[in-house]
Amino acid sequence: MAGELNMIVYEPPLALLRRVSGIYWHKRASNSPAHRWLRAQIALLMEPLNTEAAPLPKA
């Protein structure tokens, strides 16, 4: 993508900590079809960033 945007990408001069993200919801939304769909979409979108980690739980 950097090439398409005519950008130069540099490696950082020091090791950076990996960022951990999660999604949280109220238990009453757990069985909502719309909320389950939204969580699944977020999980699919974030999956490529989940390298070197345990698989994401199913929404």
Summarize the structure.
The chain is mainly α.
Present the secondary structure layout:
Layout: H1 33-46
Structure description:
The protein has a domain at 20-59. 24% of the residues lie in helices and 0% in strands. The protein contains 1 helix and no strands. The protein is elongated. The mean pLDDT is 83.
Instruction: Characterize the biggest β-sheet.
Output: none
Helix content: 10-25%
Structural class: mainly alpha
Overall pLDDT, averaged? 83
Q: What is the rounded Rg?
A: 16 Å
Q: How many helical elements?
A: 1
Low-pLDDT stretches? none
Shape: elongated
Distance between the termini: 29 Å
Order of helices and strands: H
Q: How much of the residues is beta strand, in percent?
A: under 5%
| Strands, count | 0
Sum up the structure in keywords.
mainly alpha, single chain, 59 residues, 0% strand, 1 helix, 24% helix
